[in-house]
Specification:
Layout lengths: L14 E2 L5 H12 L7 E8 L7 E3 L5 E3 L7 E5 L9 E6 L7 E5 L2 E5 L4 E4 L13 E4 L14 E2 L5 E5 L17 E5 L7 E5 L7 E3 L6 E5 L11 E7 L4 E2 L5 E2 L3 E2 L17 E5 L3 E6 L13 E5 L12 E8 L2 E10 L2 E2 L2 E2 L3 E6 L5 E5 L4 E7 L3
Parallel strand pairs: 14-18
Antiparallel strand pairs: 1-6, 2-30, 3-4, 4-5, 5-6, 7-8, 8-9, 9-10, 11-12, 12-13, 13-14, 15-16, 16-17, 17-21, 19-20, 22-23, 23-24, 24-25, 26-27, 28-29, 29-30
Length: 376
């Protein structure tokens, strides 16, 4: 287990994000030009050179916090002139064990390591000199397999924290109910409970406007071939629902090893079956006014992309259109990170800004994109 270390900053460690030469800018612009979006939409860089950018969350004063999975760092980005491009980058934490998850609540940034939850208080006023971290919770499994965590605060004020299955396919959750679940705790670390189970590995969830119901993506198991099982978009309107892992996948596929133990009818099926092995991660309901009305309250999903398929798939932003809690369509919204079977970028997480634009993180191209709509 890596030891947490918070760096005390000096001026040289406050980095600008615009020091790129002409060749680098040309290559970056050519990459952006290859992204296909619906008419009237545009994509630009909110920030570049944000290595391994993963989960993103916004502070109350407009600071964008960025977690990482392959590094040990957490970033803070600011756009001081409000032009839609970040101009300063801070490393506010380092020495962490896979700090993928970040969530902001009441002035504090919560950071999820594999087995611990930390809190940095009053962080937006101390980006260049971060406060000493407070340990909130130290009771999650230490397994690295599916151990990285996406975290978010729900409408109930509780912090929701998933625990992935420590394997491709196994029944460890039968012996330890923390595995293959979404859990929640109070902001002070008390009140631990399992909210939903039968979830192989969710790395993205949010709450539906109007209902405050939890929705989440889930990554299907491997080694059943190129086209099985599909990834999932799920809906959990209340506590104690079971979504089938490891016995049943996507609501209809019995697992070859464990499927004879239960019927698929005993579990909650997904609202939408997504592409097989697309690695559906971050998701958000669109609630802004910048995009056309047809996008209001629909679900945007970041698909990180397949690693285990003979023909690569994913590496895109998709859209699930809903009528209430029923999926009406599943379609590509933005694509182009995958070219001739090779990916130059991998979308991870999605965040809506106050102006209605969307931010998208990319841990391969080390960037945060901004998607806007002008109608032109």
């Amino acid at each position: 287990m890596k030891r947490l270390a918070i760096i005390t900053f000096t001026i040289p460690l406050l980095l600008t994000l615009s020091c790129r030469n002409n060749a680098q800018n040309k290559e970056a612009n050519e990459k952006l030009a290859s992204i296909k979006l619906p008419p009237g939409f545009h994509i630009s860089y909110f920030a570049q050179d944000v290595e391994n950018a993963r989960s993103i969350t916004m502070g109350a004063k407009g600071t964008l916090f960025v977690g990482t999975r392959e590094l040990d760092k957490v970033y803070a980005l600011t756009d001081s002139d409000h032009d839609g491009i970040a101009d300063k980058k801070y490393i506010i934490a380092s020495g962490m064990n896979t700090p993928n998850g970040v969530a902001f609540h009441n002035g504090s940034l919560y950071i999820a390591e594999i087995s611990k939850i930390w809190r940095l208080d009053d962080i937006e006023d101390h980006l260049a000199n971060p406060p000493k971290p407070v340990l909130v919770y130290d009771g999650y499994p230490a397994d690295e397999h599916h151990g990285w965590k996406y975290i978010a605060f729900g409408p109930d004020g509780k912090l929701y924290i998933p625990v992935g299955a420590p394997c491709n396919i196994c029944d460890d959750n039968e012996h330890d109910p923390r595995y293959a679940s979404i859990t929640r705790i109070n902001p002070d670390g008390t009140g631990f409970e399992v909210f939903a189970k039968g979830i192989r590995n969710t790395v993205g969830f949010t709450w539906q406007p109007g209902t405050n119901d939890l929705w989440f993506t889930d990554n299907g198991r491997d080694l059943l071939g190129d086209d099985l099982p599909p990834d999932e978009l799920n809906h959990a309107p209340h506590k104690d629902m079971n979504f089938g892992y490891p016995y049943c996948h996507a609501g209809y596929i019995k697992d070859p090893k464990y499927g004879d133990r239960y019927s698929c009818d005993e579990f909650t099926p997904p609202v939408a079956r997504l592409g097989p092995h697309v690695a559906a991660l971050g998701m958000k309901f669109y609630t802004g006014n910048m995009f056309p009305a047809e996008y209001k309250n629909q679900v945007f999903i970041a698909e990180h992309g397949s690693w285990n398929r003979s023909t690569a798939i994913g590496y895109r932003i998709t859209l699930v259109r809903l009528a209430g809690d029923t999926a009406k369509s599943y379609e590509v919204f933005a694509e182009g990170w995958l070219k001739d079977g090779s990916a130059w970028g991998r979308p991870v997480d999605i965040l809506q800004l106050n102006d209605g634009s969307l931010l998208v993180s990319d841990d391969k191209n080390n960037a945060i994109y901004r998607i806007t709509y002008t109608g032109e």
